[in-house]
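Bug #77: duplicate submission created two jobs. Keeping one. Sequence:
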Amino acid sequence: MTLRESLISAVDHVIEPPDLWTRRLSKVKFAERMPHVEKLPDGSDCWVIDCRKYPLSETLNVGALLNDRAIAATQWSDVPKTAYEPAARSEAMDQDGIAYSVLYPTLAGFSGERFGAIADPELALACAQAYNDWLIEEWHAKNSRFIPQSIVPIHPIDAAVGEIRRAVGRGHRGLIFPTAPMQLGTLPHINASDYDPIWATCQDLDVPVCFRAGSTPDLFQFPLPPHIAPELAAAMRAAIRPASAVFDLTNILFSRILLRFPKLKVIFAESSIGWGTYLLEYADHQYEQDHCNYELKPSEMFHRQCYLTAWYDEVDINSRHVGVDNILWATNFPAANSTWPDTRQFTDRRFAGMEDHARRRIQRDNAAKLYKIAA
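Kept job's structure:
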C-alpha cells in the first residue's frame, strides 16, 4: 500500500444523530434533560442539553458536504447522511484516499466541554457513556477504519477515571478533554493536582490526551465588531482558533504535568504548526531567563511528549524546529474548511519538497503509533 493509499487523518468529527441519547438513556430518569432535538418557531432545529437550547447551526459543521460551504445547516433534513452514517462516511474516505479517521465529537463539544458543563454528575456520566458506547458499537465495531476516542464527565474525578478505564476497555484509543475545565463552573484549574488521577490513568493505559484548539473560547477571544457580516465573523473565528492552542501548549509546558507524567502523550488537535517554532524558541528563552529550574526545557518536554496537528500549513517549512516526529496531519472532515474531497492534491502541494520518510511519519506513522493502528 502506497502512502497516498494509507493516509491517517488524525482529526475528523463524527456528527451525532438526533436519537443517539433518546435511544440509550432512561426517559423516566432523565426525561427532557437528555440531549434531544426540538423544532424552533422559525422552523429550524435545535439541540437541547439539560434543558438548554443550542441552535443546530451552532452545534455542527458539515460545510464540506454542502453546496455552499459558507452556509450552515439549520435543519436535520439539510444534513447529508455522510455526516452521521458510517457506511456513507467510509465511501467518502475512499473517495479522498483516507485509510483511517480519528474521531472527535461534535454536539458534546469538540473537547467534550458541553457535557462537562452539565451540573448533574449522573446526567453528565450517562451522556458520556452513551456517546462512548455508540461510537464503539455503531462505528468502530462495524468498520475498524474509524478510530474512537472517549469523552468523560469532568467531575467527580473518580467517575472520570472509571469511565476512561471502561471506555478504553471497550476499544477507545484516546481521551478528549477540555483545556480549561475551570471555565465550566467551579472546577479546579487544569494545572491542579486534582486531575492527576486522569493523567495517571491515561499514562498507565497508554492512551493520549487530546486537547482541541478553540474548544474553550473564553480562553482567547477577540471581540468582533458590531454588525459584522456572518461570513466574516465565521472566517475570523476560524482563522484565530489556532491562537488558542498557543495558550494551551504554553500552559501545559510550564504546568509540570509533563514532568509528573513523563510517559503521557498530549495531542493538540486543529492547532496548526506554523507558530510552533516561535513558541518553543521563546519558551526556552524565558525558561532560562527566569530560572525556572525544571528538569527539562520546554522544547525538550514537547519533543518527548507532545504533538501538533498540521492542516493548511506549508509542512516542510514549518516542521524543521517542531520536528517531524511531533506532527500529525488531518483533513478535519466534514467541516467547511476540510480538505475533502481534494485531500491528495492538497497534500501533494503542502508537502512538496519533503522527503518521503518524513512525509510518511506525519501523514501516517506518528498517528499509527499513537493510536496502535497497523497501517
